[in-house]
Design a protein that fits this description.
mainly alpha; 8 helices; 0% strand
Length: 144
């Protein structure tokens, strides 16, 4: 029994470390505090999730670290119909979820999250996610 408990705890610790690494990278990239970076990551992931097809949502989630995947699916209602897919709507959704802040350039902030995803998710999956977005929103993704 102690071996199983040790394994479970080690897995949990590793999952926490991976999630913390992502938040730390994003905070460093933006020169933000970790709580703000975590809030931004959550806001962008929720908006991406809500704008993808069910299949693409599942495909992307499979490549997220366990705790980040939990954040990704937090509060998700797959039966809610998709809304308009313009860049301005995406940015507004992130901004609303994050909380209004005059000091945040949301195009830059969203781009930083996309760069983070680009570093940690397979190139093929990133291409699929990016291609499912409107051209105006794709401009926020890093260039290949």
């Amino acid at each position: 029994m102690s071996q199983m408990s040790h394994t479970s705890f080690a897995g949990f610790t590793h999952a926490a470390q991976q999630a913390q690494q992502w938040v730390n990278e994003l905070a460093r990239d933006l020169c933000w505090s970790e709580p703000s970076a975590c809030r931004l990551l959550r806001s962008v992931l929720h908006t991406v999730r809500d704008w993808l097809s069910l299949a693409e949502t599942a495909d992307l989630s499979a490549q997220l670290p366990v705790l980040i995947r939990g954040i990704y699916f937090e509060g998700w209602n797959p039966s809610v119909p998709a809304c308009e897919r313009k860049k301005s709507d995406f940015v507004l959704s992130v901004r609303t979820s994050f909380g209004y802040d005059d000091d945040v350039d949301f195009d830059v902030a969203i781009n930083a999250v996309f760069k983070l995803l680009d570093r940690h998710i397979s190139h093929g999956e990133i291409v699929q996610v990016r291609n499912s977005m409107k051209k105006s929103l794709r401009k926020l993704w890093p260039v290949d």
